[in-house]
Amino acid sequence: MSIYNKIKQAAGDVADSIAIRIINSRIENYGAVQSLKINRVLHEIDISLTLHGEKDLVHVICRKYSFHVMEEKIYAKVESFTSCRPWLNAILNDFATKKLFPLNHPQAKMIPVYFGYDVQDGKKRRQDACQNSPQAISNPECGLI
Fold this sequence. Notes:
Layout: H1 3-27, E1 31-39, E2 44-51, E3 58-70, E4 73-83, H2 86-95, E5 101-102, H3 110-114, H4 135-138
Antiparallel strand pairs: 1-2, 2-3, 3-4, 4-5
């Protein structure tokens, strides 16, 4: 493995760890994240949770996540959720889908940088393949944090 790939993997591990801390701080009254897998190409996050009152792990898939910067604060948005529990599907899709959630964790500013966004000088442009793909033309959020 090249040094570049080692650095990239380490940055990914740090971003995953920060993401787990941010989610856990938001759901601590309900349970905790046990693991998560981020697909940066498809913009999906697969989360395994332990929830109070549930004896088995609960899986949630967050689809089409995006980041937004407003007044120097970072927000996350998820277009849709899928869960292995029908009741959780209903709650997430009624109360969390397409909503902006502030990332108030001290390390949250690291997340967009790892995901390939440029947040300097007010430029909220993607630095990765999104700009060079056909989806960039049809996806209004391609290019926004």
